[in-house]
Design brief:
Structural class: alpha+beta
Number of strands: 2
Helix content: 55-70%
Shape: flat
Length: about 90
């Protein structure tokens, strides 16, 4: 398994908002495109993407609340995020 640092640092509220909302927005866009593709090409099941969109929208709300608390407190935010990547080879 490989682990890649994606975000690692201390940010003011504005910078943190840019970084975090950018990541969330990209994931939301990805799932919206996936759902459109699945529906148009296969008329298939989009439940996974629908669930992820709900989770991502909830995360977006939670991030907004954290940013508001940090703004009100005059605080900075320390953010660490990494991605774990595991190669899964199909079994013959």
């Amino acid at each position: 398994m490989d682990q890649i640092k994606l975000i690692d640092g201390t940010y003011n509220v504005s910078e943190a908002a840019d970084v975090l909302f950018s990541v969330i927005s990209d994931k939301i866009r990805f799932h919206n495109i996936q759902m459109l593709s699945i529906r148009e090409r296969f008329n298939g099941d989009t439940s996974h993407s629908e669930e992820r969109l709900e989770e991502l929208n909830a995360a977006k709300t939670q991030i907004a609340e954290i940013l508001k608390m940090a703004q009100d407190a005059g605080a900075t935010l320390e953010i660490h995020s990494s991605i774990d990547i595991k190669l899964k080879v199909p079994q013959s």
